[in-house]
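Quick log. Single chain, no ligands specified.
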Amino acid sequence: MAAHLRDRGFTTRVWNDGMLRSTRVRLDPRVELTWWTNWHAQMRPLHEAVEAGHGIVNVNDGMLYHVLGENAGYRYPTAQRLWDADWHAGLFPALPGGVRQEITRPYPALLRGCSFAIWSDVPGAQTPAEVAAGVRAPLRAMAERAWNGGSQLSLAEFSALDAALGGWESERPVSE
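-> predicted structure:
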């Protein structure tokens, strides 16, 4: 399937949790991995994906997941949590036991960047306007910290800048 898509100009990307387990079939290194978690000990650690040459997108579920209804134990992301963790685009979810997984700067080309995820586990938990308001600051914090590999700003300085920029309400109405 990956070859079929690549032949048509697409990049194949898969979630990391079900990949890289096999000892018999090697995943094509041209398949990019969307790295969201390492909650189970049988999941391969990040360094094995790096060693295999996979492109990687960081979607750290502890930092970048907005799960409606805070389902499955998730809490809504905040700028505070990103600053407290000193999160940057190369900081991935820890392995079981709290072992840190990190790609340090200067980032290699295989680190494609990061992404924010909004999951509708409990669709009625928030309106579209509430979701938009709730993700504004964490999205901006993700951008600040990803772009700069961290931030020279303190959380207070970032929060003041975020407040000065205001919400997105005037940019485009959110339909319910």
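The domain at 2-165 is CATH 3.20.20.80 (TIM Barrel).
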